[in-house]
Design brief:
single chain; alpha+beta; Aminopeptidase; two-stranded antiparallel ribbon
C-alpha cells in the first residue's frame, strides 16, 4: 500500500458533534484520524486539534500532520497539540509556545490541608462547616440538576461578564451537562438540604480536572468554593490522582483564588504546525491567537473593567 493510501485510510469524512460554545449549543466539525477525533474550527483561520485534548494524549503527531496536509478538502490551515501534564519537557521539534495551566500537586489531603493552604483558608472552611455546610459526593440525578439550574439562574452576570448558563431550564441543563458524566464525579455543597454549590470533577487519568465549579451568590459570605476545592482534593487523593488542574493560569481575581487554594502555574509545550501559506502567516504574526492577543495587557485589563461595569449597570 502506498503512503498516500495508508494515510487516506486513516482519515474519516468530516462529521459534526454537538458541543457548547460560550454556553450555547453549537455544531463542531470533526474528523477522525488514526482512531482519534480532531476538531476543525470555523472562521478565517481553520485550526485542527485533538477534540478531547485535556483527556487524551496525541498518539502520533507525524501521522496526523501528514493526513491533514494530504487531505486539502479538510481546509485545515494550522494544526496544534500539546503535551499533557506531567510531561512539561518538549518532546518534539515542531514550533512551540507555552500554555500555563493551574496545577495543584497532591501528596495527600492532609499535606494539602496542613502545608499547601494558609490558616485563614482552613478557618473559612471550618466556619462554613460549623454553620451547617455539608459537602459530599452525589449522583448526577434530577435533584442535582435542579440544584444546578437554581444556581445558574441566580444572576445573569458573574465575574464581571455575562453568565453563559443564565436562563436555562431544567431540561436544557440536564441535556447539556449529561454528555460527559461517564468521566466525572459530582460534588454537592448543602445547607439545610438545599444545594448551594457544586463541582463536576473530571478524571483525566493522570489528574483531576475541575470542570464546572459554582456556588450560590446568596451564600458568598461562606466562601463555599474553598469547601468544594477541599472535597475535590480529598477525592483526588483517595483515587490516586497526583494532580488537580483548574484550567489556565491568568492574572485575574480567579487566578488569585487558585493561588490561595495551593495551585501553581505549570507551563506545558503547545506545538503549532502550519499546513498552508495562510497558516504560516498567522503563526508568524500571532493571528493564531486572534486579534485580541495584539492588545497590550494594560488595554486588556481596561476593557475587562469596562465590560464588568457595563454588565453590572444592566442588571
Amino acid at each position: 500500500m502506498s503512503d498516500s493510501a495508508r494515510i487516506g485510510s486513516r482519515v474519516s469524512d468530516v462529521f459534526t458533534k454537538e458541543t457548547l460554545v460560550e454556553g450555547a449549543p453549537a455544531k463542531l466539525q470533526c474528523v477522525e484520524i488514526a482512531g482519534q477525533v480532531f476538531s476543525l474550527s470555523s472562521g478565517f483561520l481553520r485550526v485542527a486539534q485533538l477534540e478531547d485534548e485535556w483527556y487524551e494524549d496525541l498518539r502520533d503527531p507525524a501521522v496526523v500532520i501528514d493526513a491533514l496536509a494530504s487531505r486539502r478538502s479538510l481546509g485545515a490551515d494550522l494544526f496544534t497539540f500539546w503535551q499533557r501534564l506531567p510531561h512539561a519537557e518538549p518532546a518534539y521539534e515542531y514550533p512551540l509556545e507555552w500554555d500555563k495551566i493551574a496545577v495543584l500537586k497532591i501528596t495527600s489531603y492532609e499535606h494539602w490541608w496542613n502545608r499547601q493552604i494558609k490558616s485563614r483558608i482552613r478557618t473559612t472552611i471550618r466556619k462554613a462547616e460549623r454553620e451547617g455546610l455539608v459537602v459530599r459526593e452525589v449522583a448526577f440525578d434530577d435533584d442535582f440538576v435542579r440544584g444546578m439550574t437554581a444556581i445558574f439562574n441566580e444572576t445573569p452576570v458573574r465575574q464581571g461578564r455575562k453568565f453563559w448558563h443564565y436562563g436555562k431550564d431544567f431540561d436544557t441543563v440536564k441535556r447539556q451537562f449529561s454528555r460527559y458524566v461517564h468521566r466525572e464525579r459530582m460534588i454537592g455543597a448543602y445547607l439545610d438540604g438545599e444545594m448551594v454549590g457544586f463541582v463536576m470533577l473530571g478524571d483525566a487519568g493522570r489528574y483531576g480536572l475541575l470542570g464546572q465549579i459554582l456556588s450560590s451568590i446568596r451564600h458568598r459570605d461562606k466562601s463555599l468554593n474553598y469547601s468544594l476545592i477541599a472535597k475535590s482534593v480529598e477525592l483526588c487523593a483517595s483515587n490516586g490522582l497526583e494532580y488537580l488542574v483548574y484550567w489556565y493560569w491568568g492574572d485575574d481575581s480567579l487566578t488569585e483564588f487558585k493561588r490561595r487554594c495551593g495551585f501553581e502555574p505549570v507551563a506545558l509545550p503547545r506545538y503549532y504546525i502550519p499546513l498552508t501559506p495562510k497558516g504560516r502567516i498567522a503563526l508568524r504574526t500571532g493571528l493564531h491567537h486572534g486579534p485580541v492577543a495584539w492588545l497590550p495587557p494594560s488595554m486588556k485589563r481596561l476593557l475587562k473593567r469596562w465590560r464588568a461595569a457595563w454588565y453590572e449597570a444592566r442588571q
